[in-house]
Amino acid sequence: xxxxxxxxxxxxxxxxxxxxxxxxxxxxxxxxxxxxxxxxxxxxxxxxxxxxxxxxxxxxxxxxxxxxxxxxxxxxxxxxxxxxxxxxxxxxxxxxxxxxxxxxxxxxxxxxxxxxxxxxxxxxxxxxxxxxxxxxxxxxxxxxxxxxxxxxxxxxxxxxxxxxxxxxxxxxxxxxxxxxxxxxxxxxxxxxxxxxxxxxxxxxxxxxxxxxxxxxxxxxxxxxxxxxxxxxxxxxxxxxxxxxxxxxxxxxxxxxxxxxxxxxxxxxxxxxxxxxxxxxxxxxxxxxxxxxxxxxxxxxxxxxxxxxxxxxxxxxxxxxxxxxxxxxxxxxxxxxxxxxxxxxxxxxxxxxxxxxxxxxxxxxxxxxxxxxxxxxxxxxxxxxxxxxxxxxxxxxxxxxxxxxxxxxxxxxxxxxxxxxxxxxxxxxxxxxxxxxxxxxxxxxxxxxxxxxxxxxxxxxxxxxxxxxxxxxxxxxxxxxxxxxxxxxxxxxxxxxxxx
Length: 499
Fold this sequence. Notes:
The chain is mainly α and 499 residues long. Helices cover 59% and strands 4% of the residues. A hairpin with a 2-residue loop joins strand 2 (172-175) and strand 3 (178-181).
C-alpha cells in the first residue's frame, strides 16, 4: 500500500495545512496564478523608480529583471525557509510600494547618483531592521492602526502625481541643450490611451473570473492598442540578451547620506508592520499556528531579502497582501505552490529580454492602470482607518495632522527647500513626514502621560445624535429638546432613556 509523501515539518510538530503537497501539475499551475495576481505590482516599482532616475529602456529593463530575481529569491526563502529565516507560509514577496515615494524623493534630480543613494539607504535600513527583529514587539507598539492607516493612505495619495505624470509626460524637454516646452505634453492621444487602459482595468475588475488579474490585463490590452496605433515599440527588446545573471551594483557603488538613511529606516519599520500583519492574516486564512518565533523568522527573511536587494539593483521586499486574499479566495494553502511561483519569478529575472518586454509598456498605459493601483493603496489605508476608535479620543487630530503633513511635499514640492539637506530629504518624502508626525502625535495623545486627555472639539468629529425617551443628547454632551434642535436644560428628574 502506497503512502503519500510526508508533510511533517522539520520541527517535528503535527502536520500543518501549509505543508500539503498537491502534485507537480497543480503546484505549478497554482504558482503561476499567484504570480499573475501580483505581477503588475512587482514590475511597477522598478519602472516607477527607473522613470524617476531618467533611465533609458535598456536600463529600466535591468531594474525590472533584478526586481523579479530578488522577489523570486525572497519568496523561496519565505516559503521554504532556512533556520531562523522564513515563516514557511504561503506568502509571495515583492517590492514594497511603501518605499516608492521616499525613494523618488531621494532620487530627486540626481539620476543614477540618486539611485545609488537609494541603494545605500536601503542597505543600512534593512540591516537595522534585521538587527531589531528580536525587539520588534516593542517597536510595533508605535504603529497602531491610527498610525499605519494614515501612512498607507498618504502612500497612495502621494503616488497619484506619478500616475498623472505618466499620462501627461514632462512639461518641458531638452533639445540641443536648451529646455523647451514639450509639444506632446498632455496630448489627447496619450490621455485617451490612459483612459482606455483605466476602463479595461475597471471592466476586468467587474468580471469575477479575471478580477484579480485586472491590472495586468489593463497593461497588456493597453500596450497592444498602443502598438497598433504606433504609440509604442519594442526597440529595447532586440538589444537585450535572452539569459543573463544580474550584475551586482550595476549602476555603481552605493552612496550613503544620513537624511536618506533616516527616511528609509522609517520606511523599513512600516514594511515590518505590514509584513507582520500579512503573516498573522495568512496564518488565520490557512488555519495554522503562528507564534512569535514564526513571525520573527518571517521578518528576518523579509529584512534579509531587503538587505540583498540593493546588491542586485532592487528595492525593499515585503509580503504582498493581495496574495493573502488569493489564498482565502482559492482555498489553496500549500506553501509549495507559492514556492513554485517564486521559482518562476527567479527564472524571469534571469531573462533580460523578458524584462525588456515589460519595460516597453507605454507610460500612458502605466498611468491609466496606476490610477487604480495607487488608489487601491490609498483605499487600503482608509479601510485601516475605519477600524480606529474616534469617539472620546484625539485620533482624529492624529489622522488629520499626519495626512496633511504627508501631502505637503505632494502639493508643494519645494516647501522644505530652504531647510538643511538632511531635514529636507526626510520631510520631502510624504511617507516619512506622515510617519514622523503620526508616531509623535500618537505618543503624545495615546501613550505618554497619566490618563487620557479630553478630546478636542476637532477630535470629537461631527456630532452624533442619540434619541432618548424625552430628550436628545449629542455626542458632545449637549442636551436637545424632543422636538427641536435648540439646546435645553435637563431638569432634575427628567427621564433619559436611550432607545
